[in-house]
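EI: anyone free to look at a 151-residue chain?
SC: sure, send it
EI:
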Amino acid sequence: AARGARQAGSARPARETRPGPEVRRLPNPRLTGLGSGLFCAGAMFLLGCLDQLLLGASPAAYGVLFLPVCVLTALWVRDGDVLTAPVVLPLAFAVGLLPVAESGGGAVGRLMGLVTGLATEAGWLYGGTLVAGAIVLIRRAAWVRSRRGHG
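SC: here you go
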């Protein structure tokens, strides 16, 4: 009993933790494949509407806004669904191009404006998809490597 009391008495007091400065981190959601598609399609449609409203439907501005959406989609999709990101991005680009594309009147005019917009802005589409594809391949390789290490 004396030995137990001596050990208890000689134990160092627990360190007090002081609250430190609050560190803010960027959001790090993990979206499913469908969730990433809905995220980037919704974001691109809203950005397309904003582009139409503020900049008068500038295709170059729309293309520049597409790049961060590509990066975020590639980073936020969960590891198991990471290969869906480069697939949903061109679809989201087309959805967001609807408010930006010129329309000559009616459904046929809107469709022709969309096709023309896709043709003339293909550089932004390919560039954003290529950036997302590179991010996805790096993430997928790291995920496969970590799974092999545990299995």
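EI: The longest helix spans residues 122-150.
SC: 👍
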